[in-house]
Write a structure and sequence with these properties.
single chain; alpha/beta; Cobalt-precorrin-4 Transmethylase, domain 1; Methyltransferase, Cobalt-precorrin-4 Transmethylase, Domain 2; 10 strands; 31% helix; elongated
């Protein structure tokens, strides 16, 4: 006779089935937001999907490879960046149509927001392929949430052209814009751009200049443009910057 189970011994509970949202589906593109400076900001869902997809399309294989190594993840990487985006988008869409699951990431933040991603997502939509957002870190949203400038509406510009004439034309065009203006700026040009704001929109125009968000040296400079300019002149200009410009009638 088979042995009778000893009911007095505690029984181990069955392993819970993985949540469906943590398991990549065949033929799906996952647009995955990754940390902008603090690895702890990676969501559980993003980590699970990155560890299980067939392929990770990334802006820089070295940067993404280092992040995945720190997470103990090994996946096939495919370089997808501004120099090959058009051709790579069609290649990746074909892989998806063949049943592969792919995660799209950038070096930091949410793909497609002033980073590669738009063309691949468009290629998938044209073919009727599923695209799934995996929300998470974004310098734009982080700065808007913590700056204290109006967030009832905003216009995101990305990076302005490097020429002063183009930046001045932008400031003139949106001088009386009713909502907050949001953009990214290089550490090499942010000081000059704040000068241009103070000189062309006025020293009392309320702005925010944020750098190294979520990192050790995170800094928010918020106030009238003339005051922010003076504080910025005494600060280190290393790092990545997000700039917000409040509507003309806003007072902090």
């Amino acid at each position: 006779m088979p042995p009778i189970p000893d009911s007095s011994k505690p029984q181990s509970p069955p392993e819970p089935a993985p949540r469906p949202s943590l398991v990549p589906q065949t033929g799906h593109l996952y647009v995955v937001a990754t940390p902008i400076g603090n690895l702890a900001d990676l969501t559980e869902r993003a980590r699970a999907l990155l560890a299980a997809v067939d392929l990770v399309a990334c802006e820089d294989t070295r940067s993404t490879g280092l992040m995945l190594t720190r997470l103990g993840i090994r996946r096939e990487l495919f370089a997808y960046h501004e120099h090959n985006e058009t051709e790579a988008a069609e290649f990746l869409a074909t892989r998806l149509a063949e049943g592969k699951s792919i995660a799209l990431v950038t070096d930091a933040g949410t793909p497609g927001l002033s980073d590669p991603g738009f063309r691949l997502v468009r290629a998938c939509r044209r073919r009727g392929l599923p695209v799934v957002p995996v929300p998470g870190p974004s310098a734009l949203i982080a700065v808007l949430s913590a700056a204290g400038l109006p967030t009832n509406g905003f216009l995101f510009i990305g990076f302005l052209p490097s020429k002063s004439s183009a930046r001045l034309a932008f400031l003139d065009q949106y001088r009386d814009f009713a909502f907050t203006l949001a953009l990214y700026e290089s550490c090499h040009r942010v000081g000059k751009f704040v000068d241009e704001i103070a000189e062309n929109l006025g020293p009392d125009r309320v702005i925010c200049v944020a750098k190294e968000v979520t990192k050790v040296h995170e800094t928010f400079l918020v106030g009238p443009a003339a005051e922010v300019r003076a504080r910025l002149a005494r600060a280190s200009l290393k790092g990545e910057f997000t700039v917000l410009i409040a509507p003309a009638d806003f007072k902090l």
